[in-house]
Amino acid sequence: MGAVRAAPTVPATPAGTVLTVWLEAFNSGDRARLTSYLEKYEPERKAALDHLLNFREQTGGFTLIRIEKSEPLHLEALVKERESSHYALLTLDVSSTDPPTVKGLGLHVVRPPDQPAVARLPWPEAVHALDRQAAELASQDKFSGGLLVARSGQVVLQKSYGLADREKHVANTADTRFRIGSMNKMFTATAILQLVGDGKVDLAAPLGRYLPHYPNQEVATKVTIRHLLTHTGGTGDIFTPEYDQHRLETRELTDYVKLYGGRGLQFEPGSKWAYSNYGFLLLGLVVQNVSGLSYYDYVRTHIFLPAGMQNTDSLPESEAVSHRSVGYLRKNGAWVSNVDTLPWRGTSAGGGYSTAGDLFRFAEALGSGKLIKPELYAQMTSKQAGSPPMPAGEGYGFGMMVSEEPQGKRFGHGGGAPGMNGELRVYPHTNTVVAVLANLDPPAASRLADFFEERMPIN
């Protein structure tokens, strides 16, 4: 028998204490234990209980492999999903209060340590393997959605699986529109860079130049457009108890400023990286103020129309949208509609809808120079020089996640929320585009994108 790996020692710090309690509560899959954990350590996320339970069901929990970095209020740990071969870097930041509360908890997929890589397959076999895997997961009720793979501008696989509406037994098709969560950020960044290219916006300018009546003067004078595009502005998030109380009343981008405009900075702009939905909401307002159009009219006219994206928009949930799928989240072991979690409408930070085909068309139009100037495209899709470190060695461009893979640089963006998950990944070295969308909880789409990425050729 092989040696049994000893359980790593968790440091006796505030961050270490929270990690231990989180792992025990999460791995138990017990509603009462998770509720107790949230009430004590993440009181603002109590509404996320069902999402956590579904995530626990999908992963089987996590095994702690080793502590990578430890500070009193910050911790990074390598963990492994119990029911798959996936590893992740868990990052945790807590407050200095007693008891400590979670300021940030993230999981970022990383390559398995000290293990041979999955065998690369020739292109036809890799594509066929992706199709088989999607069909298998769909048969297990773990995937429902659509995917597309293209090489050198030619679609080599486009297929749909599962149901767009379970109650009406409507199947997903190539025309099904899936909610895309944070993937809207790519469109917002494109809009800003168009205005930069036209000389109407300066990346180094403070927010207050374009929003002169912004309530908090420190935010208005210290945070630049570049900070907002790269999540380094310290502007915070929008998913708070205030948002939960006013979800259906928050209908315009300006309504978010009414909720959060008086809030100060979470850290000195440029000093660290912290994902900020609110920062991209502010960018949407910049687009409106500079262009004279609503954010929605601007992206329709200047991005969707020239790219040929006829199935992408952010109309309110109250409006009937043909072929828009129903999103499903796990609740008490069953799939239920996510309607009670949806915003009034998508925003410049996320929440719109699209198809795998439209995301491919967006990637092609962006790379061809049809949407933004080549020099701005190069910046958008590259890790910004001097930017603060991100988890798991990833980088961020302008509205784009950027990483180095065996097949070269990869850029794109994912999106995830209860009942929706999506990924757009572009691999310039192999001239490949992968788009996966799902009307189920994360990581339904992300896992398929990861599966293909591990097997696709590197040239």
Walk me through this protein's architecture.
There is one protein chain. The longest helix has 17 residues, at 123-139. The protein has a 7-stranded antiparallel sheet with strand order 6-5-17-16-15-14-13, with helices on both faces. It has a 4-stranded antiparallel sheet with strand order 1-2-3-4, covered by helices on one side. The chain is built from 14 helices and 17 strands. The chain folds into 2 domains: 14-110, Nuclear Transport Factor 2, Chain: A; 120-459, Beta-lactamase (3-Layer(aba) Sandwich). It has 459 residues and is of the alpha+beta class. Helix 1 (14-28) packs antiparallel against helix 2 (31-41), helix 9 (253-260) packs across helix 10 (277-291) and helix 11 crosses helix 12. A hairpin with a 5-residue loop joins strand 2 (74-81) and strand 3 (87-94). It is globular. The mean pLDDT is 92.
Short description:
The chain is an alpha+beta fold and 459 residues long. It has helices spanning 14-28, 31-41, 49-59, 123-139, 184-197, 217-222, 225-229, 241-246, 253-260, 277-291, 295-307, 356-368, 374-380, 444-455, and strands at residues 62-71, 74-81, 87-94, 102-110, 145-151, 154-161, 163-165, 170-171, 178-181, 328-331, 334-337, 352-354, 395-396, 401-405, 408-417, 420-427, 432-438.
What is the secondary structure topology, with strand pairs?
Elements: H1 14-28, H2 31-41, H3 49-59, E1 62-71, E2 74-81, E3 87-94, E4 102-110, H4 123-139, E5 145-151, E6 154-161, E7 163-165, E8 170-171, E9 178-181, H5 184-197, H6 217-222, H7 225-229, H8 241-246, H9 253-260, H10 277-291, H11 295-307, E10 328-331, E11 334-337, E12 352-354, H12 356-368, H13 374-380, E13 395-396, E14 401-405, E15 408-417, E16 420-427, E17 432-438, H14 444-455
Antiparallel strand pairs: 1-2, 2-3, 3-4, 5-6, 5-17, 7-8, 9-12, 10-11, 13-14, 14-15, 15-16, 16-17
